[in-house]
Each structure stands twice: as C-alpha cells, then as structure tokens.
Specification:
By secondary structure, this protein is of the alpha+beta class. Helices cover 20% and strands 37% of the residues. The strands form five sheets. An eight-stranded antiparallel barrel has the order 14-15-16-17-18-19-20-21. Strands 1-2-3-4 form a four-stranded antiparallel sheet, with helices on one face.
Length: 380
C-alpha cells in the first residue's frame, strides 16, 4: 500500500480451530486477512494478497456468520462474498496455502474522490480493485475537466458592444475625460460568476504621455444574458486606447466543482482525447527543429508538456518574433506514432493543434488552427 490502511470489523468470530472443514479454513483465511488489515500488518497482507500493493488503502468489514462461499471448480477459484459489493477471489497453491487473486470493494478511497469518480465514469461497477486502482491513480481527469471547462468559459464570454460616457473639457487644451462602457455577453448555457473575468482598460493621453489603466471587476452574468460594466473617467482619449479589454480568469477549482454537472461519460472522453497510454513517457522527451508553414520552428517536449518557439512573423500563426507557445499532449499512439498536441498562448487561449506522426525522432504533419486554416510542419 502506498499511504495508509484501515479496516472496520464487525462480529469477527474466531474460526482458527484445530480441526475444521474446508469452508471453515477458507473463512478463517478471510478472517486472518481482515485482522491483518485492521492491524496494518503489511507483510501479512502482501503475503495473502500480493496485488494489495496497488491500493492506497484497504477497508474490510467482516462477519463470519454472513460470509457466502461460491466455488468455480473448473478454474479452481473460490469467491468469498463478505458483504454486498465486497468479495475476495481466492486460490490454493501447491502448498495448500490460500492466496487472494483479486477483489471487489476492498480498496478504499476518500468519499469525495469516490463520488467524483462515480459521477464521471472513472469508477465503473464490475471492475476489480486492481483495475479500479489503475484508474483512480490517474489524477489527470479532474485537471483535464477543469481546463476544458475554463476553455468553454473563455469562448462563452465576449464583448458584444462598447460605448463611451463623459465629455471632453478644456483646460488650456482639450482633454478627454471619457470612460468606456462594455456590454459583456454570456453565450453559454451556464451562469458565470464575476470572479471568473474582469475588464482591463488602458488608455493613452492625446499626443502620448503616461498610460491610464483600470481593472474593472466582473459581475455575475447568467446564461444567455448580457451585462454592462463601466470604467471610471480616466482623463484620456478613447482614440488611443490599447490593451486587453476582456480578461478571462476562469473559475476557481471550488467554483468548478460546485458548478460542473457530469454526464457520466467524462472519463471515457478523457481517455480518448488526452492520450492515456502506458507507453507515453521517455519516448516523448525530445527536442526537434524544422519548418512549420515555412517558418523556422523549435518544439520541445517533456512527457505530456512542452514549448513551441517560432522565430519569424506570421499572420497565419498570429506569432511575433521569438514568441513562445505552450504545448500539451492530447493523444499519442506508440504503435502507429500518431501524435496530437494542443498549442496555446501563455494566457491559456488555444490557437490550434499539431496533428501528425512522430517516429524515429521525426515529427511530421499539419498545424490546424482554430480558424480552420492549416500549415504543414516537419521537425527532426
């Protein structure tokens, strides 16, 4: 076990008798296992159940009077059902010792993790504890869903219209005291809290001078609605306004967990789209260089994350000199070499995907941007 072990035991009746039937012997083995779990006796647990090491924790509630035994003579296996949903599949070795081959409902997880796994399809009825442990050990699902959720928030909010307010005035020369009014639309089917966004408003004075900047807090915006936020009078000209107007900060993880409603297919989608392959690892640590859309480009990967650097201006890639992009693994099939990577700006805005084949240190394919355009790349 990796972290800790616990067990709750009820009416544990001693069965370790000098002379007993075969069923009593196997029940005694189950009781011995339950006692080992209760005592945190790792050596005994691993001796009786080698795969127990795959679990973070174990929980066994055992009542000798309620154990149900069923035998598969053909497979030489015995199933001991300890309670509803909890069983041990046991075999007997050549020395007459019992060994647990698999189990259901014995590996335990924190209640919140279990509830989330059940809602998203990560926990699936019928999986053995070892199979479930492999799924539960993959901690990327929640982060993946959190990222995808915030990507939807980014595409849901937009500035539908911009107005001005205030008047110009004369103090030896004409000065603008106008501010801005932003109409922010939520085109999604979910409510978005004001904490997920704000307005960054920057202006320069007529004829140059110091920039005036204000961060205007966001407000809650219901699904499909448009809200209005207003800046102060900054004493500068709208004509020279620069900078990012709508700043999408996204949900916090707490807001995400409170808002997100799973469909039950999230884990299946995650495995399909996020490249959950055992072979992903050292084979995806590389640095390659070449051309993308005719531009000098460098791509470095460290397992499931990386960086893309291009050194020539390009309208198509919306890049400037020596500009870097973040890269994330979407899927990788080691057998075919098909590798798909997601490319994002540092602020998290997705610009497109690299889709191609990575084999023998070479990566060739197409960069498909979010506007539907594509550019060939060839790296080695």
């Amino acid at each position: 076990m990796k972290n800790w072990i616990f067990a709750s035991m009820a009416a544990c009746v001693s069965l370790l008798m000098a002379s007993c039937s075969g069923d009593d012997k196997i029940k005694a083995f189950a009781e011995e296992f339950a006692i080992a779990v209760a005592n945190g006796d790792r050596a005994s647990i691993i001796r009786m159940y080698p795969d127990a090491e795959k679990g973070d924790s174990l929980a066994v509630t055992f009542n000798a009077d309620s154990v149900v035994i069923s035998k598969d003579e053909a497979q030489k296996l015995t199933t001991l059902t300890l309670s509803k949903g909890v069983d041990l599949v046991v075999s007997e070795n050549a020395d007459g010792e019992f060994v647990i081959q698999s189990s259901h409902g014995v590996f335990a997880y924190p209640a919140a993790e279990t509830a989330f796994a059940k809602k998203t399809g990560q926990w699936k009825e019928g999986l053995t504890d070892a199979e479930l442990a492999e799924r539960m050990a993959d901690k990327g699902l929640a982060d993946y869903l959190f990222e995808e959720f915030n990507n939807k928030v980014k595409s849901a909010l937009s500035i539908a219209k911009t107005d001005t307010w205030g008047d110009d005035y004369y103090e030896g020369e004409w000065v603008s005291s106008k501010g801005a009014v932003f109409h922010v639309k939520n085109s999604s089917s979910m409510d978005i809290p004001g904490s997920a966004w704000n307005i960054i408003y920057k202006e320069g004075y007529w004829g140059g001078g110091k920039m005036a900047t204000e961060e205007v807090p966001g407000v809650d915006v219901k699904a499909g609605e448009t809200v209005t936020v207003k800046t102060k009078e900054l004493g500068s000209s709208m004509e020279s306004e620069t900078g990012q107007r709508l700043n999408i900060k996204g949900f916090t993880k707490e807001e995400f967990m409170a808002t997100f409603i799973p469909t039950g297919n999230e884990y299946e989608e995650y495995v399909k789209n996020n490249g959950r392959h055992k072979a992903v690892g050292e084979s995806l640590i590389f640095l390659v260089e070449g051309l993308m859309g005719g531009l000098d480009t460098r791509l470095s990967m460290d397992k499931n994350r990386g960086f893309l650097m291009y050194t020539t201006n390009s309208n198509e890639l919306e890049a400037s000199t020596n500009q870097q992009r973040d890269v994330k693994l979407i899927s990788y099939d080691p057998s075919s070499g098909r590798l798909e990577l997601r490319v994002s700006r540092p602020d998290g805005t997705v610009t497109g995907n690299l889709v191609g084949t990575y084999k023998n240190g070479e990566y060739n394919g197409q960069f498909q941007n979010v506007n539907g355009k594509s550019s060939a790349f060839s790296f080695k």
